[in-house]
What does this fold into?
Amino acid sequence: MNYLLHLLIYINIYAILALSLNLVVGYCGLLTMAHAAYFAVGGYTYALATQVLGWGFIPAAGLAMAVSAFLSLAISLPAWRFRGDFFVLISLAVQTFIFSLLYNWSDTSAPLGSWRNLTNGPFGIAGIAKPDILGFKVSSIAAYCVLATVSTAACCLLFWLLKQSPWGRLLKCMRDDELAVRGLGKNTRLAKTQAFAVACMFAALAGALYAGYVGYLDPSSGSLDESILMLCMVLVGGVGNFRGPLVGAVVLLLIPEALRFVHMPDTIAANMRLMIYGLLIVGMTHFRPQGLAGEYRFK
Amino acid sequence: MQILANGLINGLTLALLALGFSVVYLPTRVFAIALAGVYALTPYLAWQCLQWHLPWGVTLPLSLLVVVLLSLAIERFNHRPLVRRGASPSAHMISSLGLFIILIQFVALIWGNETRVLRTGIDTTWMGWGVILTRSQLLAAGVAVVVLASFYTWLRRTSLGLQFRALADNPVQLALYGYNTDRLRLLAAGMAGLLTGLSSLLVAYDVGFDPHTGLNVLLLAIVAVIVGGRHSFFAPILGGVLIGFLRAEVVWYLSARWQEAVTFLLLVVILFFRPQGLLGSKGRLEADA
It folds into this structure.
Protein backbone atom coordinates (compact mmCIF):
# COMPACT_ATOMS: atom_id res chain seq x y z
CA MET A 1 0.00 0.00 0.00
CA ASN A 2 2.79 2.39 0.93
CA TYR A 3 4.43 1.50 -2.34
CA LEU A 4 1.35 2.56 -4.28
CA LEU A 5 1.12 5.81 -2.34
CA HIS A 6 4.79 6.45 -2.99
CA LEU A 7 4.23 5.88 -6.68
CA LEU A 8 1.22 8.15 -6.65
CA ILE A 9 3.23 10.96 -5.05
CA TYR A 10 5.91 10.63 -7.72
CA ILE A 11 3.33 10.64 -10.46
CA ASN A 12 1.83 13.78 -8.99
CA ILE A 13 5.16 15.56 -8.80
CA TYR A 14 6.12 14.64 -12.34
CA ALA A 15 2.65 15.47 -13.63
CA ILE A 16 3.16 19.04 -12.41
CA LEU A 17 6.55 19.12 -14.08
CA ALA A 18 5.27 17.75 -17.35
CA LEU A 19 2.32 20.14 -17.42
CA SER A 20 4.52 23.14 -16.75
CA LEU A 21 7.10 22.05 -19.29
CA ASN A 22 4.32 21.57 -21.81
CA LEU A 23 3.48 25.24 -21.48
CA VAL A 24 6.88 26.10 -22.92
CA VAL A 25 7.51 23.16 -25.21
CA GLY A 26 4.01 22.58 -26.49
CA TYR A 27 2.50 26.04 -26.43
CA CYS A 28 5.52 28.21 -27.21
CA GLY A 29 7.30 25.62 -29.37
CA LEU A 30 10.60 26.18 -27.58
CA LEU A 31 12.53 23.07 -26.57
CA THR A 32 14.03 23.82 -23.21
CA MET A 33 16.58 21.62 -21.48
CA ALA A 34 16.72 23.67 -18.30
CA HIS A 35 13.56 22.54 -16.57
CA ALA A 36 15.31 20.36 -14.01
CA ALA A 37 17.42 23.35 -13.02
CA TYR A 38 14.29 25.26 -12.01
CA PHE A 39 12.94 22.16 -10.32
CA ALA A 40 16.12 22.05 -8.24
CA VAL A 41 16.06 25.79 -7.58
CA GLY A 42 12.57 25.31 -6.17
CA GLY A 43 13.66 22.38 -4.06
CA TYR A 44 16.72 24.17 -2.69
CA THR A 45 14.84 27.38 -1.93
CA TYR A 46 12.19 25.41 -0.12
CA ALA A 47 14.76 23.39 1.82
CA LEU A 48 16.71 26.46 2.86
CA ALA A 49 13.60 28.42 3.77
CA THR A 50 12.30 25.67 6.01
CA GLN A 51 15.63 24.72 7.50
CA VAL A 52 17.42 28.04 7.93
CA LEU A 53 14.54 30.48 8.21
CA GLY A 54 12.15 28.01 9.82
CA TRP A 55 9.23 28.82 7.54
CA GLY A 56 6.14 26.65 7.05
CA PHE A 57 5.21 24.90 3.84
CA ILE A 58 3.07 27.57 2.24
CA PRO A 59 5.39 30.58 2.62
CA ALA A 60 8.43 28.45 1.77
CA ALA A 61 6.86 27.04 -1.37
CA GLY A 62 5.70 30.54 -2.24
CA LEU A 63 9.23 31.85 -1.88
CA ALA A 64 10.52 28.97 -4.01
CA MET A 65 8.03 29.83 -6.74
CA ALA A 66 8.93 33.52 -6.59
CA VAL A 67 12.67 32.87 -6.79
CA SER A 68 12.21 30.47 -9.67
CA ALA A 69 9.92 32.85 -11.53
CA PHE A 70 12.53 35.58 -11.15
CA LEU A 71 15.32 33.29 -12.36
CA SER A 72 13.19 32.29 -15.34
CA LEU A 73 14.26 35.63 -16.82
CA ALA A 74 17.63 33.99 -17.47
CA ILE A 75 15.97 31.77 -20.03
CA SER A 76 13.05 33.89 -21.22
CA LEU A 77 15.08 36.95 -22.16
CA PRO A 78 17.18 34.95 -24.64
CA ALA A 79 13.94 33.40 -25.92
CA TRP A 80 12.99 36.85 -27.20
CA ARG A 81 15.61 36.54 -29.87
CA PHE A 82 16.50 32.90 -30.36
CA ARG A 83 14.55 29.94 -31.61
CA GLY A 84 15.31 26.42 -32.76
CA ASP A 85 18.78 25.02 -32.14
CA PHE A 86 20.04 28.29 -30.75
CA PHE A 87 17.44 28.34 -28.08
CA VAL A 88 18.20 24.74 -27.12
CA LEU A 89 21.82 25.75 -26.67
CA ILE A 90 20.91 28.72 -24.52
CA SER A 91 18.74 26.53 -22.36
CA LEU A 92 21.61 24.05 -22.05
CA ALA A 93 23.84 26.91 -21.00
CA VAL A 94 21.35 28.01 -18.34
CA GLN A 95 21.00 24.41 -17.18
CA THR A 96 24.75 23.96 -16.86
CA PHE A 97 25.15 27.32 -15.18
CA ILE A 98 22.52 26.72 -12.51
CA PHE A 99 23.73 23.18 -11.94
CA SER A 100 27.28 24.34 -11.43
CA LEU A 101 26.08 27.03 -9.02
CA LEU A 102 24.23 24.41 -6.98
CA TYR A 103 27.21 22.13 -7.11
CA ASN A 104 29.89 24.68 -6.29
CA TRP A 105 28.34 27.28 -4.02
CA SER A 106 29.71 25.66 -0.94
CA ASP A 107 32.36 26.10 1.68
CA THR A 108 32.71 23.43 4.31
CA SER A 109 33.87 25.92 6.96
CA ALA A 110 30.70 28.04 6.80
CA PRO A 111 27.30 26.95 8.13
CA LEU A 112 24.64 25.76 5.69
CA GLY A 113 22.56 28.52 4.21
CA SER A 114 25.03 31.32 4.86
CA TRP A 115 26.20 33.42 1.96
CA ARG A 116 29.41 31.43 1.54
CA ASN A 117 27.81 28.03 1.77
CA LEU A 118 24.38 28.35 0.25
CA THR A 119 23.86 24.90 -1.20
CA ASN A 120 26.35 22.66 0.62
CA GLY A 121 27.68 21.62 -2.77
CA PRO A 122 27.84 17.95 -3.72
CA PHE A 123 26.87 16.81 -0.21
CA GLY A 124 23.39 18.23 -0.59
CA ILE A 125 20.95 19.19 2.11
CA ALA A 126 19.80 16.43 4.40
CA GLY A 127 17.01 16.25 6.94
CA ILE A 128 14.54 18.59 5.28
CA ALA A 129 11.54 18.76 7.59
CA LYS A 130 8.18 17.37 6.57
CA PRO A 131 5.82 20.13 5.42
CA ASP A 132 3.98 22.06 8.06
CA ILE A 133 0.76 23.57 6.77
CA LEU A 134 -0.87 26.06 9.13
CA GLY A 135 0.18 24.04 12.14
CA PHE A 136 -0.76 20.68 10.65
CA LYS A 137 2.25 18.42 10.26
CA VAL A 138 2.15 16.29 7.11
CA SER A 139 4.17 13.36 8.37
CA SER A 140 2.49 10.16 7.19
CA ILE A 141 2.85 9.02 3.62
CA ALA A 142 -0.93 9.00 3.14
CA ALA A 143 -1.22 12.61 4.25
CA TYR A 144 1.62 13.53 1.92
CA CYS A 145 -0.14 11.79 -0.90
CA VAL A 146 -3.23 13.89 -0.22
CA LEU A 147 -1.11 17.05 -0.21
CA ALA A 148 0.55 16.11 -3.51
CA THR A 149 -2.72 15.15 -5.13
CA VAL A 150 -4.43 18.35 -4.05
CA SER A 151 -1.54 20.46 -5.35
CA THR A 152 -1.52 18.58 -8.64
CA ALA A 153 -5.26 18.91 -9.02
CA ALA A 154 -4.96 22.64 -8.42
CA CYS A 155 -2.19 22.84 -11.02
CA CYS A 156 -4.22 20.85 -13.51
CA LEU A 157 -7.15 23.18 -13.04
CA LEU A 158 -4.95 26.21 -13.46
CA PHE A 159 -3.24 24.90 -16.59
CA TRP A 160 -6.58 23.88 -18.03
CA LEU A 161 -7.91 27.39 -17.47
CA LEU A 162 -4.76 28.86 -19.01
CA LYS A 163 -5.19 26.63 -22.01
CA GLN A 164 -8.77 27.83 -22.49
CA SER A 165 -7.91 31.47 -21.99
CA PRO A 166 -7.14 34.00 -24.74
CA TRP A 167 -3.61 33.98 -23.42
CA GLY A 168 -3.28 30.25 -24.18
CA ARG A 169 -4.50 30.86 -27.71
CA LEU A 170 -2.03 33.71 -28.07
CA LEU A 171 0.82 31.34 -27.16
CA LYS A 172 -0.33 28.78 -29.70
CA CYS A 173 -0.59 31.41 -32.43
CA MET A 174 2.86 32.65 -31.53
CA ARG A 175 4.25 29.14 -31.83
CA ASP A 176 2.75 28.71 -35.28
CA ASP A 177 3.62 32.10 -36.75
CA GLU A 178 5.32 34.61 -34.54
CA LEU A 179 5.63 37.31 -37.16
CA ALA A 180 1.92 37.28 -37.95
CA VAL A 181 1.03 37.55 -34.28
CA ARG A 182 3.31 40.51 -33.88
CA GLY A 183 1.70 42.01 -36.96
CA LEU A 184 -1.62 41.81 -35.13
CA GLY A 185 -0.16 43.98 -32.41
CA LYS A 186 0.36 41.33 -29.77
CA ASN A 187 3.30 41.62 -27.43
CA THR A 188 4.97 38.26 -28.04
CA ARG A 189 7.98 39.03 -25.87
CA LEU A 190 5.77 39.66 -22.87
CA ALA A 191 3.80 36.49 -23.59
CA LYS A 192 6.97 34.39 -23.76
CA THR A 193 8.29 35.91 -20.55
CA GLN A 194 5.01 35.16 -18.81
CA ALA A 195 4.90 31.61 -20.13
CA PHE A 196 8.39 30.89 -18.85
CA ALA A 197 7.67 32.53 -15.51
CA VAL A 198 4.55 30.40 -14.99
CA ALA A 199 6.29 27.22 -16.14
CA CYS A 200 9.30 27.76 -13.89
CA MET A 201 7.08 28.69 -10.95
CA PHE A 202 5.31 25.38 -11.13
CA ALA A 203 8.53 23.47 -11.66
CA ALA A 204 9.62 25.08 -8.39
CA LEU A 205 6.42 23.97 -6.70
CA ALA A 206 7.13 20.42 -7.85
CA GLY A 207 10.65 20.83 -6.51
CA ALA A 208 9.32 21.93 -3.13
CA LEU A 209 6.97 18.93 -2.99
CA TYR A 210 9.83 16.64 -3.94
CA ALA A 211 12.20 18.11 -1.34
CA GLY A 212 9.56 17.88 1.36
CA TYR A 213 8.75 14.30 0.48
CA VAL A 214 12.24 12.86 0.06
CA GLY A 215 13.82 14.94 2.81
CA TYR A 216 17.18 15.09 1.06
CA LEU A 217 18.33 17.14 -1.88
CA ASP A 218 21.56 17.14 -3.82
CA PRO A 219 22.58 18.81 -7.08
CA SER A 220 21.86 15.67 -9.10
CA SER A 221 18.14 16.49 -8.91
CA GLY A 222 18.96 19.48 -11.10
CA SER A 223 21.21 17.66 -13.54
CA LEU A 224 20.92 17.58 -17.28
CA ASP A 225 19.77 13.95 -17.11
CA GLU A 226 16.71 15.02 -15.16
CA SER A 227 15.97 17.71 -17.72
CA ILE A 228 16.20 15.14 -20.47
CA LEU A 229 13.86 12.84 -18.57
CA MET A 230 11.29 15.62 -18.24
CA LEU A 231 11.62 16.44 -21.91
CA CYS A 232 11.12 12.73 -22.71
CA MET A 233 7.90 12.76 -20.73
CA VAL A 234 6.33 15.57 -22.67
CA LEU A 235 7.66 14.37 -26.02
CA VAL A 236 6.54 10.79 -25.52
CA GLY A 237 3.19 11.82 -24.13
CA GLY A 238 2.74 14.49 -26.73
CA VAL A 239 2.71 18.22 -26.47
CA GLY A 240 0.35 21.03 -27.25
CA ASN A 241 -2.70 19.80 -25.40
CA PHE A 242 -3.73 19.02 -21.90
CA ARG A 243 -3.70 15.23 -21.62
CA GLY A 244 -0.47 14.51 -23.53
CA PRO A 245 2.00 15.49 -20.79
CA LEU A 246 -0.04 13.68 -18.16
CA VAL A 247 -0.02 10.50 -20.24
CA GLY A 248 3.74 10.90 -20.74
CA ALA A 249 4.44 11.38 -17.05
CA VAL A 250 2.40 8.31 -16.09
CA VAL A 251 3.85 6.10 -18.83
CA LEU A 252 7.47 7.04 -18.19
CA LEU A 253 7.12 6.55 -14.46
CA LEU A 254 5.33 3.24 -14.76
CA ILE A 255 7.86 1.68 -17.15
CA PRO A 256 10.62 1.36 -14.51
CA GLU A 257 8.08 -0.01 -12.05
CA ALA A 258 7.05 -2.60 -14.61
CA LEU A 259 10.72 -3.57 -14.92
CA ARG A 260 10.75 -4.13 -11.18
CA PHE A 261 8.03 -6.74 -11.55
CA VAL A 262 9.78 -8.76 -14.23
CA HIS A 263 12.58 -9.18 -11.65
CA MET A 264 15.29 -7.43 -13.52
CA PRO A 265 18.39 -6.99 -11.36
CA ASP A 266 18.79 -3.46 -10.01
CA THR A 267 22.15 -2.94 -11.66
CA ILE A 268 20.67 -3.42 -15.10
CA ALA A 269 17.27 -1.89 -14.40
CA ALA A 270 18.51 1.71 -14.19
CA ASN A 271 20.27 1.46 -17.51
CA MET A 272 17.42 -0.43 -19.13
CA ARG A 273 14.98 2.23 -18.02
CA LEU A 274 16.93 5.01 -19.71
CA MET A 275 17.49 2.86 -22.75
CA ILE A 276 13.75 2.34 -23.07
CA TYR A 277 13.29 6.11 -22.85
CA GLY A 278 15.76 6.53 -25.68
CA LEU A 279 14.04 3.90 -27.80
CA LEU A 280 10.67 5.51 -27.13
CA ILE A 281 11.95 8.89 -28.28
CA VAL A 282 13.50 7.55 -31.46
CA GLY A 283 10.43 5.48 -32.21
CA MET A 284 8.16 8.43 -31.58
CA THR A 285 9.97 10.76 -33.95
CA HIS A 286 9.63 8.14 -36.67
CA PHE A 287 6.19 6.70 -36.21
CA ARG A 288 4.17 9.13 -34.17
CA PRO A 289 5.73 12.59 -34.15
CA GLN A 290 2.88 14.10 -32.18
CA GLY A 291 3.42 11.73 -29.23
CA LEU A 292 0.99 9.29 -27.65
CA ALA A 293 -1.76 11.80 -27.01
CA GLY A 294 -0.47 15.10 -28.29
CA GLU A 295 -1.66 17.34 -31.04
CA TYR A 296 1.38 19.40 -32.01
CA ARG A 297 4.13 18.02 -34.26
CA PHE A 298 7.44 19.58 -33.55
CA LYS A 299 8.63 21.99 -36.17
CA MET B 1 53.57 29.08 -20.81
CA GLN B 2 52.68 25.71 -19.37
CA ILE B 3 49.04 26.78 -19.12
CA LEU B 4 49.04 27.93 -22.70
CA ALA B 5 50.55 24.67 -23.91
CA ASN B 6 48.01 22.57 -22.01
CA GLY B 7 45.20 24.78 -23.25
CA LEU B 8 46.41 24.52 -26.81
CA ILE B 9 46.54 20.73 -26.73
CA ASN B 10 43.15 20.36 -25.09
CA GLY B 11 41.85 22.89 -27.58
CA LEU B 12 43.16 20.87 -30.50
CA THR B 13 41.47 17.65 -29.42
CA LEU B 14 38.32 19.67 -28.79
CA ALA B 15 38.66 21.18 -32.25
CA LEU B 16 38.66 17.68 -33.74
CA LEU B 17 35.36 16.89 -32.09
CA ALA B 18 33.97 20.32 -32.97
CA LEU B 19 34.92 19.72 -36.58
CA GLY B 20 33.19 16.34 -36.39
CA PHE B 21 30.06 18.09 -35.20
CA SER B 22 30.10 20.81 -37.84
CA VAL B 23 30.91 18.33 -40.60
CA VAL B 24 27.44 16.96 -39.94
CA TYR B 25 25.76 20.17 -38.89
CA LEU B 26 26.77 22.37 -41.80
CA PRO B 27 25.71 20.16 -44.72
CA THR B 28 22.75 18.39 -43.15
CA ARG B 29 21.54 20.73 -40.38
CA VAL B 30 21.32 17.73 -38.09
CA PHE B 31 22.14 18.72 -34.54
CA ALA B 32 23.96 15.46 -33.89
CA ILE B 33 23.79 14.87 -30.16
CA ALA B 34 24.30 11.17 -30.89
CA LEU B 35 27.96 11.99 -31.54
CA ALA B 36 28.33 12.23 -27.78
CA GLY B 37 27.32 8.59 -27.64
CA VAL B 38 29.88 7.75 -30.33
CA TYR B 39 32.46 9.69 -28.34
CA ALA B 40 31.70 7.63 -25.25
CA LEU B 41 31.67 4.31 -27.10
CA THR B 42 35.02 4.54 -28.95
CA PRO B 43 37.48 4.15 -26.08
CA TYR B 44 35.49 1.20 -24.74
CA LEU B 45 35.82 -0.58 -28.06
CA ALA B 46 39.55 0.06 -27.99
CA TRP B 47 39.78 -1.07 -24.39
CA GLN B 48 37.90 -4.26 -25.18
CA CYS B 49 40.22 -5.00 -28.10
CA LEU B 50 43.21 -4.53 -25.81
CA GLN B 51 41.63 -6.93 -23.34
CA TRP B 52 41.58 -9.50 -26.11
CA HIS B 53 45.32 -8.94 -26.49
CA LEU B 54 45.09 -7.43 -29.92
CA PRO B 55 48.04 -5.20 -30.81
CA TRP B 56 47.57 -1.42 -30.98
CA GLY B 57 47.95 -1.57 -34.74
CA VAL B 58 44.74 -3.62 -35.00
CA THR B 59 42.89 -2.06 -32.10
CA LEU B 60 42.85 1.52 -33.34
CA PRO B 61 41.69 0.91 -36.92
CA LEU B 62 39.17 -1.66 -35.73
CA SER B 63 37.53 0.58 -33.14
CA LEU B 64 37.53 3.54 -35.51
CA LEU B 65 35.99 1.37 -38.22
CA VAL B 66 33.21 0.26 -35.89
CA VAL B 67 32.29 3.80 -34.87
CA VAL B 68 32.37 4.99 -38.48
CA LEU B 69 29.99 2.18 -39.40
CA LEU B 70 27.82 3.08 -36.45
CA SER B 71 27.75 6.70 -37.53
CA LEU B 72 26.83 5.68 -41.07
CA ALA B 73 24.07 3.47 -39.75
CA ILE B 74 22.68 6.33 -37.71
CA GLU B 75 22.55 8.52 -40.79
CA ARG B 76 21.15 5.78 -43.02
CA PHE B 77 18.49 4.36 -40.71
CA ASN B 78 17.57 7.33 -38.61
CA HIS B 79 18.14 10.60 -40.40
CA ARG B 80 17.53 9.63 -43.99
CA PRO B 81 13.99 8.35 -43.37
CA LEU B 82 13.31 11.50 -41.39
CA VAL B 83 14.54 13.65 -44.27
CA ARG B 84 12.32 11.71 -46.65
CA ARG B 85 9.40 12.46 -44.39
CA GLY B 86 10.26 16.14 -44.38
CA ALA B 87 10.92 16.22 -40.65
CA SER B 88 12.00 19.46 -39.06
CA PRO B 89 15.47 20.09 -37.56
CA SER B 90 13.95 19.76 -34.11
CA ALA B 91 12.70 16.27 -34.93
CA HIS B 92 16.21 15.30 -36.06
CA MET B 93 17.62 16.68 -32.86
CA ILE B 94 15.10 14.87 -30.68
CA SER B 95 15.74 11.54 -32.35
CA SER B 96 19.48 12.13 -32.10
CA LEU B 97 19.01 12.77 -28.40
CA GLY B 98 17.17 9.44 -28.16
CA LEU B 99 20.03 7.65 -29.91
CA PHE B 100 22.50 9.31 -27.58
CA ILE B 101 20.63 7.99 -24.55
CA ILE B 102 20.53 4.49 -26.04
CA LEU B 103 24.26 4.49 -26.84
CA ILE B 104 25.30 5.78 -23.43
CA GLN B 105 23.14 3.26 -21.62
CA PHE B 106 24.45 0.50 -23.84
CA VAL B 107 28.00 1.41 -22.89
CA ALA B 108 27.16 1.68 -19.21
CA LEU B 109 25.27 -1.60 -19.31
CA ILE B 110 28.12 -3.59 -20.84
CA TRP B 111 31.21 -1.99 -19.38
CA GLY B 112 29.97 -0.38 -16.17
CA ASN B 113 30.31 3.15 -14.90
CA GLU B 114 33.82 3.36 -13.52
CA THR B 115 36.62 5.40 -15.07
CA ARG B 116 39.19 3.48 -17.07
CA VAL B 117 42.47 4.25 -18.80
CA LEU B 118 43.81 2.97 -22.07
CA ARG B 119 47.53 3.24 -21.49
CA THR B 120 49.38 1.28 -18.85
CA GLY B 121 52.03 2.67 -16.57
CA ILE B 122 53.18 6.24 -16.07
CA ASP B 123 53.55 8.49 -19.05
CA THR B 124 56.99 9.65 -20.09
CA THR B 125 57.49 13.38 -20.18
CA TRP B 126 59.32 15.76 -22.41
CA MET B 127 60.78 19.13 -21.43
CA GLY B 128 61.73 22.14 -23.50
CA TRP B 129 61.04 25.82 -23.97
CA GLY B 130 59.91 26.07 -20.38
CA VAL B 131 57.06 23.55 -20.68
CA ILE B 132 56.63 19.98 -19.58
CA LEU B 133 54.49 17.78 -21.79
CA THR B 134 53.63 14.12 -21.59
CA ARG B 135 54.08 11.82 -24.52
CA SER B 136 50.34 11.36 -24.93
CA GLN B 137 49.85 15.12 -25.06
CA LEU B 138 52.43 15.38 -27.83
CA LEU B 139 50.78 12.51 -29.63
CA ALA B 140 47.36 14.19 -29.33
CA ALA B 141 48.65 17.49 -30.65
CA GLY B 142 50.49 15.84 -33.52
CA VAL B 143 47.58 13.69 -34.66
CA ALA B 144 45.13 16.57 -34.33
CA VAL B 145 47.26 18.92 -36.42
CA VAL B 146 47.83 16.31 -39.13
CA VAL B 147 44.15 15.34 -39.34
CA LEU B 148 42.92 18.93 -39.37
CA ALA B 149 45.45 19.90 -42.04
CA SER B 150 44.54 16.96 -44.26
CA PHE B 151 40.82 17.68 -43.84
CA TYR B 152 41.24 21.25 -45.04
CA THR B 153 43.44 20.20 -47.92
CA TRP B 154 40.76 17.71 -48.91
CA LEU B 155 38.04 20.30 -48.55
CA ARG B 156 39.86 22.91 -50.63
CA ARG B 157 41.68 20.86 -53.23
CA THR B 158 39.42 18.01 -54.31
CA SER B 159 36.24 17.92 -56.31
CA LEU B 160 34.53 15.95 -53.58
CA GLY B 161 35.49 18.68 -51.14
CA LEU B 162 33.92 21.25 -53.43
CA GLN B 163 30.70 19.22 -53.60
CA PHE B 164 30.82 19.02 -49.86
CA ARG B 165 31.03 22.77 -49.48
CA ALA B 166 28.21 23.13 -51.98
CA LEU B 167 26.09 20.78 -49.90
CA ALA B 168 26.70 22.94 -46.88
CA ASP B 169 25.74 26.00 -48.88
CA ASN B 170 22.57 24.89 -50.61
CA PRO B 171 21.60 21.20 -50.58
CA VAL B 172 18.51 21.57 -52.75
CA GLN B 173 20.35 23.27 -55.58
CA LEU B 174 23.14 20.72 -55.44
CA ALA B 175 20.59 17.93 -55.75
CA LEU B 176 19.03 19.72 -58.72
CA TYR B 177 22.40 19.73 -60.45
CA GLY B 178 22.27 15.96 -60.34
CA TYR B 179 24.62 15.21 -57.48
CA ASN B 180 23.70 12.43 -55.13
CA THR B 181 23.18 14.31 -51.87
CA ASP B 182 22.33 11.14 -49.97
CA ARG B 183 25.81 9.82 -50.62
CA LEU B 184 27.37 13.09 -49.58
CA ARG B 185 25.36 13.00 -46.39
CA LEU B 186 26.65 9.51 -45.70
CA LEU B 187 30.16 10.78 -46.29
CA ALA B 188 29.54 13.57 -43.81
CA ALA B 189 28.28 11.10 -41.23
CA GLY B 190 31.25 8.82 -41.78
CA MET B 191 33.75 11.63 -41.38
CA ALA B 192 31.99 12.86 -38.28
CA GLY B 193 32.25 9.39 -36.80
CA LEU B 194 35.95 9.21 -37.65
CA LEU B 195 36.78 12.64 -36.23
CA THR B 196 34.76 12.02 -33.10
CA GLY B 197 36.35 8.64 -32.58
CA LEU B 198 39.84 10.02 -33.03
CA SER B 199 39.28 12.89 -30.67
CA SER B 200 37.83 10.51 -28.12
CA LEU B 201 40.73 8.08 -28.37
CA LEU B 202 43.32 10.82 -28.02
CA VAL B 203 41.67 12.18 -24.90
CA ALA B 204 41.07 8.70 -23.50
CA TYR B 205 44.72 7.80 -23.98
CA ASP B 206 45.76 10.90 -22.10
CA VAL B 207 43.32 11.16 -19.20
CA GLY B 208 41.05 8.10 -19.17
CA PHE B 209 37.34 7.78 -19.87
CA ASP B 210 33.94 6.90 -18.46
CA PRO B 211 30.52 6.58 -20.13
CA HIS B 212 29.25 9.97 -19.07
CA THR B 213 31.92 12.36 -20.32
CA GLY B 214 30.53 12.32 -23.85
CA LEU B 215 27.78 14.88 -23.55
CA ASN B 216 29.82 17.44 -21.62
CA VAL B 217 32.62 17.29 -24.13
CA LEU B 218 30.23 17.48 -27.06
CA LEU B 219 28.57 20.52 -25.51
CA LEU B 220 31.97 22.15 -25.27
CA ALA B 221 32.58 21.31 -28.89
CA ILE B 222 29.25 22.84 -29.88
CA VAL B 223 30.11 25.95 -27.91
CA ALA B 224 33.40 26.01 -29.81
CA VAL B 225 31.52 25.83 -33.11
CA ILE B 226 29.16 28.65 -32.13
CA VAL B 227 31.97 30.82 -30.79
CA GLY B 228 33.98 30.32 -33.92
CA GLY B 229 31.06 30.90 -36.25
CA ARG B 230 28.68 28.26 -37.49
CA HIS B 231 28.93 28.90 -41.16
CA SER B 232 32.56 28.12 -41.62
CA PHE B 233 34.52 24.89 -41.63
CA PHE B 234 37.46 26.76 -40.07
CA ALA B 235 35.51 28.06 -37.11
CA PRO B 236 35.71 24.87 -35.02
CA ILE B 237 39.48 25.14 -34.83
CA LEU B 238 39.47 28.75 -33.75
CA GLY B 239 36.67 28.10 -31.27
CA GLY B 240 38.19 24.88 -29.99
CA VAL B 241 41.60 26.37 -29.32
CA LEU B 242 40.06 29.50 -27.79
CA ILE B 243 37.98 27.42 -25.40
CA GLY B 244 40.97 25.25 -24.60
CA PHE B 245 42.92 28.37 -23.59
CA LEU B 246 40.00 29.83 -21.69
CA ARG B 247 39.45 26.68 -19.66
CA ALA B 248 43.14 26.37 -18.86
CA GLU B 249 43.19 29.99 -17.67
CA VAL B 250 40.10 29.45 -15.54
CA VAL B 251 41.78 26.52 -13.82
CA TRP B 252 44.81 28.67 -13.13
CA TYR B 253 43.13 31.84 -11.93
CA LEU B 254 39.86 30.60 -10.43
CA SER B 255 39.35 26.90 -9.89
CA ALA B 256 38.58 23.84 -11.97
CA ARG B 257 35.03 23.70 -10.70
CA TRP B 258 34.06 26.96 -12.39
CA GLN B 259 35.17 25.79 -15.84
CA GLU B 260 31.70 24.88 -17.04
CA ALA B 261 30.10 28.05 -15.77
CA VAL B 262 32.69 30.29 -17.42
CA THR B 263 32.53 28.40 -20.71
CA PHE B 264 28.78 28.71 -20.94
CA LEU B 265 28.96 32.34 -19.88
CA LEU B 266 31.19 32.86 -22.90
CA LEU B 267 28.56 31.17 -25.06
CA VAL B 268 25.84 33.49 -23.80
CA VAL B 269 28.00 36.56 -24.29
CA ILE B 270 28.86 35.50 -27.84
CA LEU B 271 25.26 34.66 -28.69
CA PHE B 272 24.12 38.05 -27.50
CA PHE B 273 26.77 40.26 -28.98
CA ARG B 274 27.98 38.33 -31.98
CA PRO B 275 25.47 35.56 -32.74
CA GLN B 276 27.14 34.81 -36.06
CA GLY B 277 30.35 33.85 -34.25
CA LEU B 278 33.82 35.29 -34.50
CA LEU B 279 34.37 34.25 -38.10
CA GLY B 280 30.78 34.53 -39.28
CA SER B 281 29.24 37.17 -41.44
CA LYS B 282 26.05 38.79 -40.37
CA GLY B 283 22.83 37.17 -41.52
CA ARG B 284 19.27 37.22 -40.35
CA LEU B 285 18.73 34.95 -37.39
CA GLU B 286 15.24 34.02 -38.51
CA ALA B 287 16.59 32.86 -41.84
CA ASP B 288 18.45 29.92 -40.42
CA ALA B 289 17.10 29.34 -36.95
